[in-house]
Amino acid sequence: MPELPEAEYMVRRLRESGTGTISQVKVLRPGMTGDQPARRLPRLAAGQAITGYGRRAKSVLIQLANAHTIRIRLGMSGHVYRVADAAALPKHTRLAFLLREGGALAFEDARTFGDVTIHADADLPQVFADLGPEPLDASFTPAVLAQALAGSRAPVKPLLLDQSRVVGLGNIWAAEALWQARISPTAPAGALNPKQIRALHKAVVGVLTQAVANTFRATETAADFPEADLLAVAVYQREGQPCRRCRKSIERFVQAGRSTFYCPVCQSGTAIVKGI
Ligand SMILES: [Zn+2]
Question: Could you tell me the residue range of the domain that residue 149 belongs to?
């Protein structure tokens, strides 16, 4: 499933591919425009110059000259990229922006959980009101992370998955960041000390930066995005294998319905409540 690293990868690739002017919006599968009427997107996007690309959490953004932004939610399998031939769109293309200069931006989505909507730029703060800070932004500091976790007695691992606290950390990257920072996944989030916050901040930024780089490297050879086991993970899905730091076996338990992988030595103090 595409997470922040894959969305970031797509945005950087789109920037490399350049901008253009949308000549036509082709909706190849009904229902791909989310909760908006199907006509809204073509009406507002056709004829508009693309001014840039962006990302908010796991959404890819296409910015238009008419002060509107197209938001692509990737769902379970979405992938947006530029193709050279608009007459030969990839098999699972659900929606495409044909470009006056030739070619198209294709939104491929085999499982069709994604959608494409358009919003006035002025409405974007409201559209994204429920989202926490962006960990790859320069404005993401240890103080911002501390504020996001402050006041919570919930265990830190599930809280890191809460997109209203901080965006972009899926189950893999939350576990990896906590291992790097040597913090127990069951530690109360609001009780982390300043040193732990600094370590966690560094780990979150580092893990996501590395994940973006891994996505670039892996897609040089693979046609699709790599599974987690192809990436350089330290704990995720490594139950029973030696910790890369201390050689103790990595353990797994279920936390808030998700598997949590951790090192019992490097992340000491992990208090597992059995049976949940
Ligand atoms: Zn260890």
Answer: 142-262
pLDDT, residue 276, reads: 41
Strand, helix or coil at 259?
Answer: strand
Say whether 239 is catalytic: no
Are residues 90 and 16 both part of a single domain? yes
Find the catalytic residue in 6, 55, 58, 238.
Answer: 58
Average confidence (pLDDT) per 10 residues, the chain, 276 residues: 90 96 95 94 98 97 98 94 95 96 96 96 97 96 97 95 94 95 96 97 95 80 55 89 97 95 92 56
Asked about 258 being catalytic, the answer comes back as yes
Predicted TM-score of the model (pTM)? 0.89
Q: Any catalytic annotation for residue 71?
A: no
Position of tokens 């953004």?
A: 61
Q: What is the dihedral of CA 269, 173, 201, 220, to 10 degrees?
A: 150
**Contact (Cβ atoms closer than 8 angstroms) between residue 115 and residue 34:** yes
Tell whether 8 and 81 lie within a shared domain: yes
Residue 1: which of 116, 131, 109 has the closest Cα?
109
- CATH (domain of 228): 1.10.8.50
- Secondary-structure percent of the chain, ordered helix, strand, coil, rounded to 5: 30, 25, 45
CA of 244 to the centre of ligand 1 (A): 7
- Contact yes or no for 179/68 (Cβ under 8 A): no
d(CA 173, CA 200): 12
- Catalytic residue list contains 3: yes
DSSP lists the bridge partners of residue 125 as none
